[in-house]
Amino acid sequence: MRIGVVTFPGSLDDTDAARAVRYAGAEPVRLWHADRDLRRVDAVILPGGFSYGDYLRCGAIARFSPVMAELIPAARAGLPVLGICNGFQILCEAHLLPGALTRNAGLRFITRDVRLTVGNATTPWTGGYHAGQQLLVPLKSGEGAYAADQATLDELEAAGRVVVRYAGEAPNGAARGIAGICSDDGNVVGLMPHPEHAIDPLTGPSADGLGFFTSVVRAFAGAAAATEAEAGALR
Amino acid sequence: MATVIVDVMLKPEIHDPQGEAVLGASHRLGFGNVTAVRQGKRFELEIDGPADGAALAAVEELARELLANPVIEEFSLHPAD
């Protein structure tokens, strides 16, 4: 499986994201923000960082980059996309996910390990977890407070689209403790905490984050097997 | 050539911790009569031609698409004096 990792000017966590992809047994494919080319990847990760210096609003300029012109229609057509931190902000700015990320309630940039509770274990990125599972992963963001209007929040909760929630009080003032959400059909997932920094106890607080990457590999293998079986049945 | 001003503010229901920090600093400076602060952004756009209806409509579209995020912000615009 080929998983693209986009590098924008100001991306920081693209190398860790690529490492997580390798740990999960897939091939990381580096994608450049200025290329109108997804290089035939099977999934894409938008990594953390400060794309375009966070000018205007976090993710607001990245949304209009050439690679996003390719990614947006592909995501709408079902390509699995994971946005981490700044990647989540970009997905919201691109309207692939509802809502927005706003400045932390306490104004401080927060860098600490946080406990998350998995709310939706049916997306391609979370299929390897089970609902209610607790994960310990780092959070490091200054504008990580998820915000949306009440109707959108109600809809997200009713449809099970809250993928991960902060266990206990949200450290950043996120609405309803939301740490990550998914699109209608689940293929696009965005979250503020960083699973790619928690794939090995040697370099992170746990290996709890690896499941995001192994899940998508397994989902892809399952989809490939299903397509093969379908083709076999037709033959 | 004309100049159009676009003011962008967080919606009233969106928490503005920056504004609160400015409020706190105002009180520490002795400006105790300030009771609330909301912080926003101001854009000054120079455009070709006059700031007529069509030009303002175009700026409004730009504001909605780029300068403001309608999920959390609202904007107003007017030609510069």
Describe the protein's architecture and organization.
- The complex is a heterodimer of chains A (235) and B (81).
- Chain A is α/β, with parallel strands linked by helices and 235 residues long.
- The mean pLDDT of chain A is 96.
- In chain A, strand 1, helix 1 (14-23) and strand 2 (27-32) form a beta-alpha-beta unit.
- Chain A has helices at 14-23, 66-76, 86-93, 150-158, 210-234; strands at residues 2-7, 27-32, 43-46, 81-84, 100-102, 110-118, 134-141, 145-147, 162-166, 178-182, 188-191.
- Chain A has a single domain (2-101, 148-161, 181-234), classed as Class I glutamine amidotransferase (GATase) domain (Rossmann fold), CATH 3.40.50.
- The relative contact order of chain A is 0.17.
- The longest helix of chain A is centred in the last third of the chain and has 25 residues, at 210-234.
- Helix content of chain B is 33%, strand content 30%.
- Chain B has helices at residues 17-28, 53-67, and strands spanning 2-10, 40-47, 73-79.
- Chain B has a single domain, classed as Mth169, Chain: A, CATH 3.30.1280.
- By secondary structure, chain B is α+β, with helices and mostly antiparallel strands.
- Chain B is elongated.
- The mean pLDDT of chain B is 96.
- At the A-B interface, loops of A face helix 1 of B.
Cα gyration radius of chain A (Å): 17 Å
The gyration radius over C-alpha positions of chain B equals: 16 Å
Q: CATH topology of chain A, what is it called? A: Rossmann fold
Kindly give the count of domains of chain B. 1
Oligomer: heterodimer
Strand content of chain B: 25-35%
CATH class of chain A: Alpha Beta
What is the topological layout?
The complex is a heterodimer of chains A (235) and B (81).
Chain A: E1 2-7, H1 14-23, E2 27-32, E3 43-46, H2 66-76, E4 81-84, H3 86-93, E5 100-102, E6 110-118, E7 134-141, E8 145-147, H4 150-158, E9 162-166, E10 178-182, E11 188-191, H5 210-234
Parallel strand pairs in A: 1-2, 1-3, 3-4, 4-11
Antiparallel strand pairs in A: 5-8, 6-7, 6-9, 9-10, 10-11
Chain B: E1 2-10, H1 17-28, E2 40-47, H2 53-67, E3 73-79
Antiparallel strand pairs in B: 1-2, 1-3
